[in-house]
Amino acid sequence: MSDRYAAGRANLSVASPNIRALAARTLAPVIAKGQSLSALFEPALEKVDAKDRGLFQQLCFGTLRQYYQLQAIANQLLDKPLRSKDCDVSVLILLGLFQILHLRTPDHAAISETVNASRKLKKPWASKLINGLLRNFLRNRSDIESQLAKNPEYTFSHPQWFIDKLVKSWPEHYQAILQSNNQQPPVCLRVNQQQTDREQYLQQLRELPIAAEPLATNSTGIRLLESADIRSLPGFTQGHFSVQDEAAQLAAELLNLQPQQRVLDACAAPGGKSCHILEREPALKELLCVDLEATRMERVKQNLQRLQLSASLKVADVGKLKIWWDGVPFDRILLDAPCSATGVIRRHPDIKLLRRESDLAKLGALQLELLKTLWQTLLPGGELVYATCSVLPDENESIIQQFLKQQPDAQHQTINATWGLGRPFGRQLFPQAGGHDGFYYARLYKAL
Fold this sequence. Notes:
Layout: H1 17-33, H2 37-45, H3 53-65, H4 67-77, H5 87-102, H6 107-120, H7 126-148, H8 152-156, H9 160-169, H10 174-181, E1 187-191, H11 198-207, E2 212-214, E3 221-224, E4 241-243, H12 251-254, E5 262-266, H13 272-280, E6 286-291, H14 294-306, E7 312-315, H15 321-324, E8 330-336, H16 351-354, H17 359-375, E9 378-388, H18 397-406, E10 410-413, E11 421-422, E12 427-429, E13 439-446
Helix pairs in contact: 1-2, 1-3, 1-5, 1-6, 3-5, 4-5, 4-7, 5-6, 5-7, 6-7, 9-10, 17-18
């Protein structure tokens, strides 16, 4: 899920109050019940006029990116928390604060539109409350911000447990990571080299004109420098490109693919890396994609079809070999392991609310178990690439270190690259403002 419609233009700042009300209804289950924004956002977006989609996306994604900052301010303004059944009103307060602090909406418009939205929620009693709170903030903004200045959750707009983990793990980098997480990410494309090449596609974009630049880390990636409707870009239907973050585009290269190899993409959905593998080496003997969920595997199938690529697909728990493995070993394995997704918070800002520190131990156990299990399917002399979209060592280099201690025939291969931060095991990428997401990669070789 990316900011496809993000526009930030002044003419999007004032729209129907229905937009605010719909944003409040969309975000309330995320905040109150821990539901996923991904599951709620797309159905809501279908109800929005095309001209208002940029603003709607800014309101939903931006309010969650800045949730901890906005909530800290709301706590200062409210005498007591609102009732749980009025979570939509609480969200409207956050939406109003977000517009004042982070959008170019004039203060009077932010207040009036947010107040009007409370009536659309059929809670007219909240109009006076919202109006008073937002005006109180404007009058006392300096004092309120001064009182909160020493609160890390307010300063960085992240949960305290996550701030503490980053300070401990990355004392020299934690502030930049947190700041990047609060920014809108860029949109990157991966040119399908079986259909066209990067320079040709860049020329097509220039002729539109759409500003874009080549990625420095690979030969097929492009970063868009302005917003665009992805489906309207040249060659979308014909499969000339895919949307994929710069960091994710590194996986296929690290696999060191060769013709006639048998390759496994474990935890493959939604299929971006699977497709890149086939684009990079079309002469594979087989690419097998395995994922647990049938609905997500359907996304893999759709992506393959659009890009005119072919792979074997299996819906199964990749950790249960008897269900899906035919006993024929693989030359290469990509394990894009289930993780906390703390490297892609800016794309999925609900992670800030949904993830708990207690999740890390469970995820770490699963990651290590998957490594052990899939190692059995790797041919001696074969290579496995371990990847996560996490910035936490607990899920990354720590897992690789544990695995190497337990697996005598596993050898760590140093990744010689200019990107990321070299670690004793693997390389760590941090989210970059205007650049790539947070990712981790490690390469392992199975001794003969």
